[in-house]
Amino acid sequence: MTLYPRILLIGALAGVALSGRAEDGLTQTTVSFYAGGKPVGGMIFAIGAKAELSAQANHVDSDATSRHLTGNVQARLIPDGGQSFILFGEDVVFSKAPISAERAKAVRDLEAMAATDQLYRGRSVQGDLTPEEWQQQTAIDVANTKRLAEIIDAFGWPGLRFAGAASQTAFLVVQHADHDTQRKYLPLLRDAVQRGDARGNNLALLEDRIRIADGKPQIYGSQLGGTPLQFEPIEDEAHVDERRRAIGLPPMAEYAEMFGLTYTPVH
């Protein structure tokens, strides 16, 4: 028997307009790609974002919040007010999940922290700010750290699946927090990277920064210092590129080029 593709049209997959109380009815749309039953990639739309979707596939399973398409999946997605783009694959899930008011506020707060984290320190690459400016930035850092702690206590580490692009702000806040706070949240960031919910370079920077501050050699080779500029000591340097590759980082030689340096691998 010949199996013909079934056509599925989904209108306004994420199209829930705000009305009544500010957070009522908010949803978040995600697109997930699978291989062998395991997620291998995806897309996360901003909370409350609207999108129109038309798709076809050999087989479709659906419920109130998701559409699971398998076999020659082809879809056209049109974000609200944006240009359409095409998705294709063999196993794709489109889902629309309700978002609580607390989670929506947490994501908005993370988004706001991105600007305040750089309010003063972002003005100078060299960090040559006045004592008063650093005092203001430090007060902001303390407030951001306190709010991030509240978010983590309520939801766990705010990774990509939770906060989308705003997940990067969580790392920035921890990176600029005190040493004890960095050590406290390092395991959470490490776990998030292992499950593909955070960026590997963030883990490398934080892990290495903590080890250097503790007087230990770094693991991933992300930290440089001194005049002339050079890499801080690296533990088991002969295998550093293996560790970097395991979390999605380029080899040391390529990383060194970013700083105008030449790196000679250790064997």
List the helices and strands and how they pair.
Blueprint: E1 6-10, E2 27-35, E3 38-44, E4 51-57, E5 59-62, E6 66-79, E7 85-98, H1 101-117, H2 131-155, H3 160-163, H4 167-175, H5 179-194, H6 200-213, E8 224-225, E9 230-231, H7 240-246, H8 252-257
Antiparallel strand pairs: 1-4, 2-3, 2-7, 4-6, 5-6, 6-7, 8-9
Question: Care to describe what's here?
Answer:
- By secondary structure, the chain is α+β, with helices and mostly antiparallel strands.
- The chain folds into 2 domains: 6-98, no CATH class; 101-257, no CATH class.
- Helices cover 37% and strands 24% of the residues.
- The strands form 2 sheets. Strands 1, 2, 3, 4, 5, 6 and 7 form a 7-stranded antiparallel β-sheet that branches. It has a two-stranded antiparallel ribbon with strand order 8-9.
- The N and C termini lie far apart (60 Å).
- The model is unreliable at 1-23 (pLDDT under 50).
- InterPro entries: DUF6624.
- Keywords: Signal.
- Residues 1-22 form the signal peptide.
